[in-house]
Amino acid sequence: MSLIELIRDALFTLWRQKLRSSLTVGGVVVAIAALVALLSFASGMSRSVEDQVEKFSLLQTMSVTVDDSDTTAVLDSLALSWMATLPGVMQVFPQSPFSVKVVLGADTVSTEAQAISPNSRGSIMYEHLQAGNIFEIDDTTQVLITNRLLERFDIEDPDSPVGQPIILFSTQGHPDSGFAAIRDSIFALSSFDLLNLLPFRQEENADSIASSVLGRAAAVFFEGYMTRLDTVRDTLIVSGVVDVGDDWADRLRPVILPERSAKFLDPGSFSQNPLSMMSAMQSGDLFSAVMQGSDDEVDRVTLELSIEANHEALVDSLEAHGFESSDFLEFYGEFRKMVLLFTAGMSFLGFIALFIAALGIVNTMVMSILERRREIGVLKSLGAEDKDIRILFLVESATIGLVGSLLGLLVGWLGTEVVGFAMREYMNRQGISDVDLFHLGPEVILISIGFGLIVSMVAGLYPANRAAQLDPVVALREE
Amino acid sequence: MKPLPAIHTKHSETPLVRVRNLVRTYRTGSRDVHALYDLDADLPQNGSLALVGRSGSGKSTLLNLLAGLDRPSSGTIEVNGQNLATFSRKELAAYRASEIGIIFQAFQLIPHRTALQNVELGLAFLGVDRAERLARATAMLERVGLGDRVHHKPDALSGGEKQRVAIARALVKKPRLLLADEPTGNLDRENTSEIADLLASTRESGISLVLVTHDHELAEATCDSMLHLEYGRVVQPGKAGS
Ligand SMILES: Nc1ncnc2c1ncn2[C@@H]1O[C@H](COP(=O)(O)OP(=O)(O)O)[C@@H](O)[C@H]1O
Ligand SMILES: [Mg+2]
């Protein structure tokens, strides 16, 4: 019999035992759907982080802070100039890039901004000035833009925006917003709730009042963190347009600001840039207020490195001068390991589900074979070899696996679509730039269908072998 | 599939079946039961043999050995000069597929398959393609008088019809040897005579027959010779009816 006939027969057999088959196939569907969801979540996560890495060219980036134990080191303009001379360092930025909304004329565009420090002036990128001039470094009223931003605004003449006002918005979660929220809630409580409650206050509900006050304060505090993003706004004048060409297209953000304007727009505590988040976490100042040192001092600089830069040598010379560096390459390696572990862990859960489904298949196949002992005897009396019987039942269990995997893939995909849609809606409403949580790539499809098939065939091996070895004389004598 | 050694034509001296010193012992608990003991039997080319004897005398055991469904404990079963005892499992399967047709008292039709699908199975292990299988199965069902029952499932057929489907399934491959184990045991007089006619016409088409039956009339009507078994031994070989 051909494979197609065997598969058709197997489908027919499954159809005859609808309840039993649907339970067994259901087990596979649940397992494969879980596997699909887990794998596409892991794949979506690593993709969105890789996108971020690419977006911020983080691999060629190093974040430098002062080593707390070194009291002499300061990140002043002298230190920044020194860093600019280190081999492999192409630019020294006193701040990480950050997201801004730009209003030019009647249009608004979301993009990124970047501060420059005095030593950056005169670097090769500014040789390609298309129009206007570079602002003075202590000027807080002017801004440079790149030809990329003009493309976004559909402006063809680079001279036209020069001298025009440009409005920048940046949205920052800020510790103050959380504290303000708590303060508000405590005011509300003392002036209203507590006064009203006092006359009725009883010993037994004092605790519950206290806990409800605290619970509310905590809830409001977190809400402050999560949703009360401060919007900062600044109006500046376009001083010039830089042509970034191909070399600098990914390195130089579309909006280039003097250091002080940048600090105003991005205090740095809750930047969306994962690198500054990460280095802030490492140095422990994620929640600390913006450092108010001398005007010349910054609390963190970002080094743009060339592709050939020797990261280790750089780290060593920075350390020798009392600076701490966090290298995204290192962090990224760790992160990839984490994603791999996470994927493995997730897949393990999926495989446990698949293992349980496999037990269901074994059970179904053993039952099916017990019921069809006479049929096996007849087939053997008609000349079936052991191999033919084995294939017959292997195809049957593989068919359970195939049907279950295809349905599981569908269910898993629908599930991730629904959850992904809901999450995107939620993130949009929270003002967080949305991320695709799930990514159902061809590798996820291949892995889940492949495993569904392999596992179901392995589950069918033992029953199929038993069937193949059945003694036809015994089987045919049974009533 | 390994090709079977060529089987000699019926003009050859070699008998179709030659059984010598055949022993089949079953071990039940600590006791050995000799289902067949030191049995000799012959079937000429294009011959027919009736196996008679009380229940438990070893008739089915002999038939299963001839069918290549079972293996002897000792002795030889030569079919066209080939000793089945030396066949591998694979060779036995190929032998069953091409040379042997079997019918049983309990019909042994597959309940969820139609008459046509059951008969078609008779060709399933011979590498015949589906279209030819269907054509030959349909023709065979017509020959046993079931041209109008092709798409019926066994449940929708009478006992006699079921056995005719089973005969069609056994004959569709044109076997050299038809083995029938009490084929009329579950049938009434009228159906029995229909089956008897079918078996007789099978004989005419050159297919040898070994028939197990309690029905002496059937044995005489369809077989040239008869073998009487008792406790696994031959009691009285002789001409059918004598
Ligand atoms: N699988 C078996 N295990 C043990 N004893 C068996 C087995 N098959 C048959 N026998 C015994 O062998 C003897 C012959 O059986 P069988 O050939 O079926 O007889 P018949 O077909 O003539 O009624 C009986 O005594 C039967 O009990
Ligand atoms: Mg019997």
Helix content of chain B: 25-40%
CATH superfamily of chain B: P-loop containing nucleotide triphosphate hydrolases
Spatial strand arrangement across the major sheet of chain A? 3-4-9-6-8-7
**Tell me about the biggest sheet of chain A?**
6 strands, mixed, barrel
Mean pLDDT across residues of chain A: 77
Order of helices and strands of chain B: EEEHEEHEHHHEHEHEEE
Class derived from helix and strand content of chain B: alpha/beta
Number of domains of chain A: 2
Shape of chain A: elongated
What is the first-to-last residue Cα distance of chain A? 28 Å
Descriptive account of the structure:
The complex is a heterodimer of chains A (479) and B (242). Chain A is of the alpha+beta class and 479 residues long. Chain A contains 14 helices and eleven strands. Chain A has helices at 3-16, 18-55, 77-85, 147-152, 175-197, 203-227, 259-265, 274-283, 311-320, 328-371, 373-381, 386-429, 442-468, 472-477, and strands at 61-66, 89-93, 98-104, 107-116, 129-132, 142-146, 165-173, 229-242, 255-258, 301-305, 323-327. In chain A, strand 3 (98-104) and strand 4 (107-116) form a beta hairpin. In chain A, helix 2 crosses helix 12 and helix 10 (328-371) crosses helix 12 (386-429). The model of chain A is unreliable at 187-204, 269-273 and 284-294 (pLDDT under 50). The longest helix of chain B is centred in the C-terminal third of the chain and has 16 residues, at 189-204. Chain B has helices spanning 59-66, 89-99, 115-120, 130-143, 159-171, 189-204, 216-222, and strands spanning 17-28, 31-43, 48-53, 74-79, 82-83, 100-104, 177-181, 208-212, 225-230, 233-234, 238-239. The A-B interface holds A 1-2, 5, 12-13, 16, 374-375, 377-386, 388, 472-473, 476, 479 and B 64, 67, 69-70, 89-90, 93-98, 100, 102, 104, 106, 108, 110, 112, 121-122, 124-126, 130, 169. Residues 26, 28, 33, 35, 53, 55-61 of chain B line the site of adenosine-5'-diphosphate.
